[in-house]
Amino acid sequence: MNDSGTTTAGTDGSDSAFRHELYPYDGDAQFLTGAMSFIQDAHAGSELVLVSVAEPKERMLRTELEGTDAAAGVSFLDVAALGRNPGRLIPAWRDWLAKHAAEGHSIRGISESPWSDRSAAESGELHYHEWLLNLAFTQSPAWWLLCPYDTAALEPTVLEAAGRCHPLLLNEGAHGPNSAFVDEPYAFAELTSPCDPYEELSYQQGGLAAVRAKITACATEHGLDGARLRELLTAASEVAANSIKYGGGRGTLRTWVEGRDLICEFHDSGHIEDPLVGRTRPTIDQVGGRGLWLVQQLCDLVQIRSTPEAGTTIRLHTALS
Q1: Which of 136, 156, 173, 310 has its CA 20 to 30 A from that of 304?
Q2: Beta strands in 81-213, from DSSP E residues, in sequence order
Q3: pLDDT tens digits, residue range 107-139?
Q4: CATH fold for the domain made of 199-319
């Protein structure tokens, strides 16, 4: 990462330890052709492959691999176990990469996120995840990640955004630089305005009980209780406590329901500098820095927007159904 917040690794694919490649394909048959070619090349080079795709694509690949020599080198990431939060994906890749790279293996990956039923907020965080991959693995052991995108099913805006995040491109069987890649700081879309009606509460030192009470009242009104409510309250307490400790000693909570989600928004005057905050697994002996990691594990979606001028806004999404 350079001084402007951009990540220059991998723009030509020759000097970077991490090769991040976009694979636009048209329909299932072309998906299988590209994915299987990638897997067979990995097998020829004695490389392991981790595949993270939705269940229908996983079934297709398992069927195609059945009985082949390449099958032994392919593992599948349990996407369902990770849930819908893109904030959990980078840690999962890091865990698998660290384990197998330490054993001396060369690594490849195939990652395709399901886009079809995503909300606008979820889609935005998926785009950000793709951009963050370039930053997260700048200093990693060498590996190669292929990201298939179905041109027949996805909106042009999704494909355009994907192009800006991938330094490399697989096109008609040829691997090479991606001319659409943009090596610059990530440009977030503006957060949507809270839905009416919404509740608002200012808090400061000694106010965490009031924060939890406000969220409990809103959640109970919309049928959220039990373990899911306890998880949300734990996450909310972590964020509010960070406001008090690092965000100027006070913050503002807003709660509302949007679509299928209960949203708790926290705003304070602090600034978070690390783009990967909450996406790095804490070490056993680490002191502090666990709060936003925990928040990512407990919530269905986490949106973090932070600048020195505007302060920090964090939205916690919890599905109501």
Answers
A1: 156
A2: 106-111, 143-150, 168-171, 174-177, 199-204
A3: 999 999 888 788 999 999 999 999 999 999 998
A4: Heat Shock Protein 90 (3.30.565)
